[in-house]
Amino acid sequence: MRKFLSTAAAAALVVGAATFAQAQDKQSVEVLHWWTSGGEAAALEVLKKDLEGKGISWVDMPVAGGSGVQAMTVLRARVTAGDPPTAVQMLGFDIVDWAKQGALGNLDSVADKEEWAKVIPDALQQFAKYDGHWIAAPVNIHSTNWMWINKAALDKAGGKVPENWDELIALLDKFKEQGIIPVAHGGQPWQDSTIFDAVVLSFGDDFYKKAFIDLDPATLGSDTMKQAFDRMSKLRTYLDPNFSGRDWNLASAMVIEGKAGLQFMGDWAKGEFVKAGKVPDTDFVCARYPGTQGAVTFNSDMFAMFKVAEDKVPAQLVMASAIEDPAFQVAFNVVKGSAPARMDVSDAEFDVCGKKAIADIKEANKTGRMLGSMAHGYADPAAVKNAIYDVVTRQFNGEITSEEAVNELVSAVDAAK
Ligand code: GAL
């Protein structure tokens, strides 16, 4: 405890006293992250500049690969070598797993003083705290049940945003008639599963919860799950032949450039549209995946702080504090495409999609419809998530039938639990 207080006191010195400028100069954070696309890098720059303004220098450790699959492998190697980075972009159950292993630091001094508990939704606190202590600083709230539609193509198809499966299929058929690729997609397991999040959710919150959060075998093996897989097969017929392995941001670019009609993707896709100078409701339209309005399959990017040498802790605490600053939450999230992690931040500076994200999250938070994203690590630990990824991707690529996928889902999840 005494050690901890002295750490907090050191942080206060770094934050507060201009005369300690020299000491500040020596402060740095090494940050491991996977924000390497145009929109992601632009958002990261906001954080980097903010910290540099506070005398904290930034040592960049980018590991490309959407949803952080590769980043987590690199992280394991660093921790195993006894040299963890100062701060790591991380999602959900991965954070809790590192906390369980005793690898993470303690942000209570900053979090308590700034009363994070009052403004960060409980759904996020379950992952940002462990054993009653703050271990990570949530930077945003993303969600996966979105569609990003090219506005010109939509107008040509009659202008109506689809609200159910039949309307979605009708729209995709019209895109096909227009001679564009109906669905822009990158065939990577995490992207396939991002679509699966939304498809499963469209059968109802209860179904999603029982399947992905409770991992109920009867639900995983149900006829409804088979229908969900059948829908995945149908959606696959609307992709171009070169989808395999494509990065998600290149799929976003296809919609931006009008080569494709729409993309099913989390709202980090909006960061790409914004970076390309595109305006919602003029150039593109954001809408919830048909049948999922009101519910939010969320994933919040958090910076988990690793246990590091004592002299590095003050910079960690400055970083944590900077991340939760309301003005920073606005500046960062308007660029990233996400909603703030705090519920008390004004939406005034956000575009219509940002305003919608914020309103949807507020509503879902009240109605209990904030559901952790399976695809992005907020429903299950990594082993279970990866088991689901594997089945979803093989079925999506036609290697197994829907029937086989349902059976394999039950056994793979059971083995991974
Ligand atoms: C998500 C992450 C987003 C975005 C996306 C694609 O898991 O939460 O911030 O980076 O991956 O890389």
TrEMBL record:
Job of this protein: Part of a binding-protein-dependent transport system for a sugar.
Xref: SUPFAM superfamilies: Periplasmic binding protein-like II
Asked if the Swiss-Prot or TrEMBL record annotates the protein with the keyword Signal, the reply is yes
The subcellular location is:
Periplasm
What GO cellular component entries does it have? periplasmic space
| Keywords of the record | Periplasm, Signal, Sugar transport, Transport
Q: Where is this protein primarily located?
A: periplasm
Family indicated by similarity: Belongs to the bacterial solute-binding protein 1 family.
> Which range is the signal sequence, renumbered to this chain?
1-23
Kindly provide the name given to this protein in its UniProt entry. Probable sugar-binding periplasmic protein
